[in-house]
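The following block was generated as part of the benchmark described in Methods. Ligand: magnesium ion.
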Amino acid sequence: MSQAAAGSARRGHGDVADLVERARKGEPRAVARLISLVEDASPLLREVMAALAPLTGRAVVVGITGAPGVGKSTSTSALVSALRRRGKRVGVLAVDPSSPFSGGALLGDRVRMQEHAVDREVFIRSMASRGHLGGLAWATPQALRVLDAAGCDVILVETVGVGQSEVEIASNADTTVVLLAPGMGDGIQAAKAGILEIGDVYVVNKADRDGADATARELNHMLSLGERRQPGDWRPPIVKTVASRAEGVDEVVEALDKHHAWLERTGVLGQRRRARLREEIEAIALTALRERMGDLHGDQRLDVLADRVVAGELDPYAAADELVEGLTA
Ligand SMILES: Nc1nc2c(ncn2[C@@H]2O[C@H](COP(=O)(O)OP(=O)(O)OP(=O)(O)O)[C@@H](O)[C@H]2O)c(=O)[nH]1
Ligand SMILES: [Mg+2]
């Protein structure tokens, strides 16, 4: 637990309300403190989440994923500028699922995000898994809730594409942007990583390099192969950008707006958010159950049940049922 978190844990109840109120007003230190509580899996989280619940549901969550070095942070920073020009309050969550510590990649991000560091309408946080139960899958939605309550209109979540994490990020976002770059053998990689199923918007970045058109064509071809689209379905657009010069970024914002409008019009937005919450609730419930199961080592109830199975009074399934009922009663 961070010092700050330990401090609020000691001070207890009233401080959570105060912290949430300050975060709601967009005070950066309060927002940072709340996200630290999430990262640390603080015992105060239950209270924090209860206080945040009525303040959330407004922010649009955009996931940005792609292979290492493809230009996610550069694109994210350029998107922040474009969104700020439109008067939006923006949150950025850089999630690094590969390391339990904030590593070099995130340091690099800080440099790329520097131009936004003094903007009070931009909140930027890096998050590492710190190895706690459930990891980032569990922490990300809670950190998103903090940024949502802080009045962010849009939250950009950058995740390095390392297999499973891409799918995880997709399940946390309303809209998922998949980044590719020419000359990385991306086409084949994309197919392998299941990236073709998760993108709502595809961006071929580094379009100043040779091969961008070929990459876009190949991607277009691969997307049309698996096509089983009905009329009215969303067809993911492919946008070419040079993120380092902010070229094409307005087109990306337009594509994001169009996708969001489609999500709302079709009711898919509600479906996606509900699916996300179902997963989150299930994860929390399973964690709670597992914790209670963990407490059973040395618990007499198990001995008693085992004896009854030995005595032929119960079969193991019925014994397990009794145990589970006892745990949730
Ligand atoms: N030529 C060119 N270089 C770019 C472009 N966009 C980003 N870069 C460079 O590509 C490198 C990687 O960019 P990042 O934005 O850090 O990429 P990333 O995907 O966030 O990388 P990780 O977080 O490490 O996975 C940097 O040196 C950028 O300056 C572009 O459009 N053209
Ligand atoms: Mg990055």
